[in-house]
Amino acid sequence: MKFCKLRHTLSREDRLRRSYYQVLRDELDQFVLDYCLVGSYNNFLKLRTPYPFVELRELKPRARIPSVEFEAQNSFLIIFCEEYIDKTHKKYIRYFDVNKTTKTNLLRLKDFPDLENYNRNIKCFESDGFFSLLKNLLPVDYAILIQPNHRLKTQYALTHFHVRVDWPIADASENLAKFLRYISKDLYEKGDCYAENMQKKLFEYYGVPVLAGGRRTAAVVAAQYFRQLDSITTVYVGSSESRSLLRLDEKGVSKSVLVKLEVDQVKALSEQEGLPQSTFTNNYVVAREGKFYICIFNVWYDYTSHALPSEGGRLRELNPDNNWLTVAEEQILPKPSVSKYAPIPYKMVYA
Q: 66-94: buried (b, 16+ CB within 10 Å) or exposed (e) per residue?
């Protein structure tokens, strides 16, 4: 299995394109944070329903997430590819003419808003209406695909919606197991129980419970599938169960959630950064709830030695009890609309 080529191994032209991709991804990060977390919080406010904040234990590796779906939570799946997906991949990533973002195809969607003003340039990332189009398409089942224009490699566009990921979980697990050297050829070469444990570990590798819902399962499979390519792919998934934003990319796994901070915590964070408390609240607090401040909390995870290729490529045995993820970084993020201030390191998961 390949991983994306590192930037220093690329040609000057490809390094420039990767830089451009990463700039666009920074913009997409802010949009999905706002839509998934802030937008969902506002949905609950409109319904006059208390927001179901994620318990910090749910952010620990291998944590079990309560299987309760919240309709007011925005759910979606976005696949953002650095390179155009070749037609040879259509066997498993189902994007065809019937689900291109054309006016004819969008007419088939029930109650798609503002279709009269639709033009084909709106699907281009650089256009003013791109994020409006993306927001309108996110509730549609399956995934949104953003990739380069087939002819212009540096022009990214929302090319397809309702994109299905049909790679079998067993194939994805086998692919990962061979890369990590837990098997040599076939997923079932060491028996059914070993194969079942390896499939469970696939989900753990991407920070998702083994019985996760459809979008998160599709995200796991898509992230593993695209690791066979030389280019970068970023997968974003919002879940009505997890109430979090999960991002899977070349660096690994990160999760973002809303948290409630008390006055003393906000004061300590302000002092830590040398900021007036009013500056902190203006730039990091997305809402107030009584005496609590609502902020965006982000966790990055690292892989343990058990989830990295074995030393010397030696074949090894899988131990299901070994953790594959560990908490690496914890941050309070600025509001999605803020560009001047940086994330603030702040440990909460094991505090």
A: eeeebebbbbbbbbbbbbbbeeeeeebbb
Structure tokens at 206: 């991407």
Q: Is the dihedral of CA 127, 131, 136, 137 positive or negative?
A: positive
Contact (CB, 8 A) for 224 and 201: no
Q: List the one residue out of 180, 166, 147 whose CA is nearest residue 222.
A: 166
pLDDT in tens, 213-235: 789 999 999 999 999 888 999 99
Question: Over the stretch 247-272, which tens digit does the pLDDT of each residue have?
Answer: 999 999 999 999 999 999 999 999 99
Q: Give the span between the Cα atoms of 169 and 208, in whole angstroms.
A: 14
- The answer to whether 99 and 163 have CB atoms below 8 angstroms apart is yes
Bridge partners of residue 93, in order along the sequence: 165
- Confidence tier at 1 by pLDDT (50, 70, 90): very low
Give the pLDDT band of residue 295 (cuts 50, 70, 90). very high
In 181-289, alpha helices (H): 192-205, 214-226, 263-273, 277-284
- Residue 7 corresponds to which tokens in the numbers above? 């930037």
Q: Which residue has the tokens 């590192």?
A: 6
What pLDDT sits at residue 316? 95
Token output for 129: 């209406």
CA–CA dist 230, 206 (Å, integer): 19
Q: What is the CA radius of gyration of the chain?
A: 21
Strand 76-81 relative to strand 143-148: parallel, antiparallel, unpaired? Answer: parallel
